Input
Amino acid sequence: MTNRPFNYDLDPSTGLPSRYDHHTLRKLSSMAGQFFDQAAYQQLLEQEDVVLYEVYELSRPAVSGELISGISVIHPGRVGDEFFMTKGHFHALLETAEVYVVLHGQGMMVMENPEGDCSVETYQPGRVIYVPPRWAHRSVNTGPDDLVFFWVYPANAGHDYGTIERQGFHKLVIASTSGPQILDNPRWKPAS
Ligand code: PAN
Ligand code: ZN
Output
C-alpha cells in the first residue's frame, strides 16, 4: 500500500464510493440472538437470508496514525417490530473514537459505554455524529429507504463484536404506531 495522498468520490444520489478495497455483506444469519423477537427472526430466516447491510471500506495499515474510512448502507426492514440494524461493537482498542456523516435516510445510533451509560443520536442527512472513545455503537434504519453514512476511525482501533453478541445493547429501537420507540432491552445481561 502506497503512502501517497488519494481521493475517492461519493455518488451524489446513492452515496456509494467510486472505489473501495472491501465490500462486506451482512446477512440475517450472522445476527443470531441479536434481535429481540427470536420467533420472527427464525421465520424470516426460513423465508430468506436477507442482506441487512453492506459496508464499503477503504483499507489502511492497522497502525496508529492511519485512518480507515468508508460507507455503510443499512437496508430498510424489520424483524418483527425491530428495525434492521448493524451488529454493533466496541472498538477493540477501547480508547478510540469515530466520526459518522449521514448522507441519506433516517435512523438512530444506539450507544453505550462499559459503565452502562446510554445515548441515542438521530440520523438525518447532513448530520455529523461523534462517537467518543469507549462507546459501543449500533446503527438502526428506522425509515423506508436505505440509510447511508460515511465513517472514519483510527486504523488500529479493531472491533470487539463478542461483548455485544453476549450481552446485547441496553436499548432496543422498536416500531410502534407513533413511530420508532426506544425501549429497555429486557434480555440485556453483563457479558462477564
Ligand atoms: C462502522 C461499522 C459499520 C458496520 O464502519 O463497522 O457500519 O457495523 P458493524 O461493524 O457493527 O457490523 C464502524 O463503526 N466502524 O468502526
Ligand atoms: Zn466503530
Summary: The CA atoms of residues 36 and 62 lie 34 Å apart.
